[in-house]
């Protein structure tokens, strides 16, 4: 195995692992030797992902976690210590979208949900992950933001606000802990064919959204996850505080 993508015996925490990026990343890291603690609010679905990964011979523990709860995020780190003894890598991937609508149409409960899951979920995750990484001499964290965190996102204002906040948390934390050997970055995908997108956009809308990218289509989940693997690589030791767009060229226009 190429050493750049060798995660042998690295203990990795992944939230939102029942589907989409989290599920695929869990599977790919397991193939590369990682030991996994995976979680999701969808208990049965994340357990099924864990069972599938375990059947391949990988070390994995699946659990329920509501990332909007600091106690649940702490419990995930505690379980990693109980099962594997440390936390080398954490991926704060869990997130939610909302129905399309202009700013004046966004209701208070939508804003509350976006910030509870997409913002607090990242901060709570990092709070407990960083605490452990400080005690063991370092680690790597990847937060999942969005292209909506780098620019305007018409009809998705609450989501954009939350994902901008993820970038603010990422950059701030990266500076605060760089000298403690903790790398913290964010990935910012364009619309990708995960359930988060396919559940709110029919095939015609997906086609129209894809036309916004110079590459002419939406991303496949594998294309985003491949970038995540490179950002998490144990050999990628000098990248921190970066928010990487995986966008088919959208940000180049």
TrEMBL record:
Q: Which UniProt keywords apply?
A: Oxidoreductase
Does Transcription appear among the keywords? no
Q: What is the official name of this protein in its record?
A: 3-oxoacyl-ACP reductase
Per the UniProt entry, what species is this protein from, by scientific name? Thalassotalea eurytherma
Top-level taxonomic group: Bacteria
* Cited InterPro entries: NAD(P)-bd_dom_sf, Sc_DH/Rdtase_CS, SDR_fam
Q: Which is one Pfam family of this protein? A: adh_short_C2
Q: Which family does it belong to?
A: Belongs to the short-chain dehydrogenases/reductases (SDR) family.
What lineage is on file? Bacteria, Pseudomonadati, Pseudomonadota, Gammaproteobacteria, Alteromonadales
SUPFAM superfamilies attached here?
NAD(P)-binding Rossmann-fold domains
